[in-house]
C-alpha cells in the first residue's frame, strides 16, 4: 500500500469545486440556442489511504470513484426552468471501508428549480431573482453553506431563495430550505451503489440571510445569520439541533499583486443533544465560536507565487452544562482543510491550527500549491475533527500532530480536460497515538489522482 501511495504521489493534485459553469461543448453540439444552457462533466478518481486514523474501519483502503453531471436550463424570458443530474459511484473499497453517502449517491437530481427574474422590483438599479425548488448554494466563504466539489456527492437544498444585487456590487440572499438527506445510508447499499432517491422534509430545515458589500475594488465585507432546526424521524435519528450561527467576514483580495487578508468570525447559540440516540432527550445549551484569519502576499511576475499564513480556531466541547463544540453545518472543507473522501480528518470543530500555504502558476495551464498546518485541539476531552478519536479523560493532551499537503492541477485541454493530483500526510501527535480508541496505526498517508472532462 505504501508503495502504491508513493507512486500515486509521483504521477498525480485536488479537483476544483464543481460549480455549474458556462455553456460547454454540449451546448455547441445542439446549435448553441440562446434560450438554453447546457453543460456536463465526467470525473474519474483513484485514491488510497494507509495508516488509517479512524477507529473500527479498514487501516488501509483504496477507492475508485466516478461522477457524472448534466445541467440544463431553459430561459423563457422572466422565467427559467433548470435541472442538474448527477451520478456518484464508488468501487473497489474494502468491506469495512469508511466510504459513506458523501461518496455514493447514484442517479440523483442535485437541482430542479423554477426561477423568476424580478428585475428592479426590489429597488431602483437593482436586479433580483426568486428560485423555488431543489438547488445548490455556496454562500460567502463556503465555510458554513457550500455546494461541494472535491467530494463525490453534492449538497442540495430544497426550498426558496431570494437574491438581490445592487448596481454598486452589493448582494443580499434570503432563503428557507430543507437540506436533502443523501441515500442510501446503510453500508450494503453504499457498497452496491444502490439507487435510492434522496429525501427532504421539514424535519431538517436550514434558513437565514447573507449580505455582502464592496468597500472598494479589492475589499468586501459580509454579514450573515444561518439557522438550523432538526427533529428525529422513526427512520433517521438526529441530535435535534436548534442552532443559530451569526457571523461576519472582511476580505481584501486585489486582482493582481500585493498584500491580501481575510478575517471571519462566527458565533453559535441554541440547543442540541450530545448524541443521536433515541433515548437521549436532554437538550443542552450550545455556546460555540469559530474564527479564521489569514494574511498573505501575491507577486505578479514569473510563477505568480503567493504565500499565506493562517490561523483556524473552532471551539470544542468541555462537557458540563453547555455544549461548546462548533458545528460547521453544510460547509466545504477541501479548499482549506485538505482532501476529504477517504481522508478528511480535519474539520471546523475542536481545532486550533496555525499554518502556511504556498501557491504558484508556473504556466497558464499548471497550478501547484501546498500547505502545512499544526493540529491542536481546543478541548482535550472532545473528539478531534472528524476522526472519531476521543479521550474523555483528557489525559492524551491537546497535540493532534500536523498535516502536510501538496496539490497539482494541470489543464490538459483548457476548459475541457483537467488533471488533478494530490498527496497528504498526517503526522499523528500524542492525542491521535494515545487516545483510548485510536486504531494504533502509524502516520497517515493519502494520495489521489483524478481526471475531469467538462463538456
Describe the protein in words.
The chain has 455 residues and is mainly beta. It has one domain (2-454): Porin (Beta Barrel). A hairpin with a 4-residue loop joins strand 8 and strand 9. It is built from five helices and 18 strands. Residues 1-19 have low confidence and may be disordered.
For the terminal residues, how far apart are their CA atoms? 35 Å
What general outline do the C-alpha atoms trace? Answer: globular
Q: Can you tell me the residue ranges where pLDDT is under 50 for at least 5 consecutive residues?
A: 1-19
Whole-angstrom Rg:
22 Å
* Number of H/I helices: 5
Number of strands: 18
**CATH level 3 topology:** Porin
CATH architecture: Beta Barrel
Helix content: under 10%
Biggest pleated-sheet summary: 18 strands, antiparallel, barrel
Total domain units: 1
CATH class: Mainly Beta
> Approximately what portion of the residues adopt beta-strand conformation?
over 45%
Written as H for each helix and E for each strand, in order along the chain, the element string is HHEEEEEEEHEEEEEEHEEEEHE
Class by alpha and beta content: mainly beta
- Compute the average pLDDT: 93
What would a concise description of this structure say?
Helices cover 6% and strands 48% of the residues.
Structural features:
Porin, 5 helices, disordered N terminus, mainly beta, 455 residues
Task: Describe how the helices and strands are arranged.
Elements: H1 2-11, H2 25-29, E1 36-50, E2 60-75, E3 79-91, E4 105-119, E5 126-135, E6 157-166, E7 171-179, H3 187-191, E8 204-214, E9 219-230, E10 242-252, E11 258-272, E12 284-298, E13 306-314, H4 334-337, E14 351-360, E15 366-376, E16 399-413, E17 417-428, H5 430-434, E18 444-454
Amino acid at each position: 500500500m505504501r508503495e502504491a501511495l508513493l507512486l500515486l504521489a509521483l504521477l498525480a493534485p485536488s479537483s476544483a469545486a464543481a460549480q455549474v459553469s458556462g455553456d460547454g461543448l454540449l451546448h455547441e453540439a445542439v446549435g448553441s440556442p440562446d434560450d438554453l444552457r447546457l453543460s456536463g462533466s465526467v470525473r474519474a478518481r483513484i485514491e488510497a489511504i494507509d495508516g488509517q486514523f479512524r477507529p473500527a474501519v479498514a487501516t488501509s483502503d483504496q477507492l475508485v470513484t466516478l461522477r457524472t453531471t448534466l445541467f440544463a436550463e431553459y430561459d423563457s424570458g422572466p422565467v427559467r426552468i433548470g435541472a442538474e443530474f448527477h451520478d456518484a459511484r464508488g468501487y473497489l473499497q474494502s468491506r469495512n471501508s469508511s466510504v459513506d453517502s458523501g461518496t455514493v449517491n447514484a442517479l440523483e437530481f442535485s437541482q430542479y428549480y423554477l426561477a423568476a427574474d424580478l428585475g428592479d422590483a426590489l429597488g431602483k438599479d437593482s436586479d433580483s431573482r426568486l428560485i423555488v425548488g431543489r438547488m445548490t448554494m455556496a454562500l460567502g466563504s463556503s465555510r458554513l453553506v457550500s455546494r461541494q466539489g472535491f467530494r463525490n456527492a453534492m449538497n442540495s437544498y430544497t426550498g426558496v431563495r431570494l437574491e438581490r444585487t445592487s448596481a454598486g456590487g452589493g448582494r443580499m440572499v434570503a432563503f428557507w430550505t430543507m437540506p436533502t438527506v443523501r441515500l442510501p445510508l446503510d453500508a450494503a447499499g453504499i457498497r452496491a451503489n444502490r439507487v435510492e432517491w434522496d429525501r427532504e422534509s421539514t424535519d431538517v430545515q436550514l434558513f437565514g440571510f447573507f449580505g455582502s458589500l464592496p468597500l472598494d475594488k479589492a475589499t468586501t465585507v459580509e454579514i450573515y445569520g444561518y439557522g438550523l432546526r432538526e427533529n428525529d424521524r422513526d427512520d433517521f435519528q438526529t441530535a435535534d439541533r436548534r442552532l443559530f450561527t451569526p457571523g461576519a467576514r472582511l476580505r481584501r483580495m486585489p486582482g493582481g499583486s500585493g498584500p491580501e487578508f481575510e478575517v471571519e468570525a462566527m458565533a453559535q447559540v441554541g440547543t442540541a443533544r450530545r448524541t443521536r440516540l433515541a433515548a437521549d432527550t436532554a437538550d443542552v445549551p450550545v455556546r460555540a465560536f469559530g474564527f479564521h484569519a489569514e494574511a498573505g502576499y501575491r507577486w505578479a511576475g514569473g510563477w505568480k507565487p503567493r504565500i499565506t499564513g493562517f490561523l483556524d480556531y473552532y471551539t470544542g466541547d468541555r462537557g458540563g452544562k453547555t455544549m461548546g463544540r462548533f458545528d460547521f453545518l453544510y460547509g466545504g472543507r477541501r479548499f482549506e482543510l485538505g482532501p476529504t473522501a477517504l481522508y478528511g480528518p480535519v474539520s471546523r470543530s475542536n481545532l486550533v491550527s496555525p499554518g502556511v500555504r504556498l501557491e504558484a502558476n508556473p504556466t497558464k495551464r499548471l497550478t501547484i500549491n501546498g500547505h502545512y498546518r499544526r493540529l491542536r485541539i481546543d478541548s482535550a476531552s472532545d473528539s478531534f475533527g472528524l476522526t472519531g478519536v476521543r479521550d474523555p479523560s483528557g489525559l492524551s493532551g491537546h497535540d493532534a500532530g500536523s498535516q502536510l499537503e501538496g496539490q497539482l492541477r494541470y489543464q490538459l485541454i483548457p476548459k475541457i480536460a483537467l488533471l488533478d493530483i494530490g498527496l497528504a500526510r498526517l503526522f499523528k501527535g500524542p492525542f491521535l497515538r494515545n487516545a483510548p480508541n485510536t486504531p494504533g496505526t502509524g502516520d497517515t498517508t493519502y494520495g489521489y489522482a483524478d481526471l475531469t472532462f467538462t463538456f
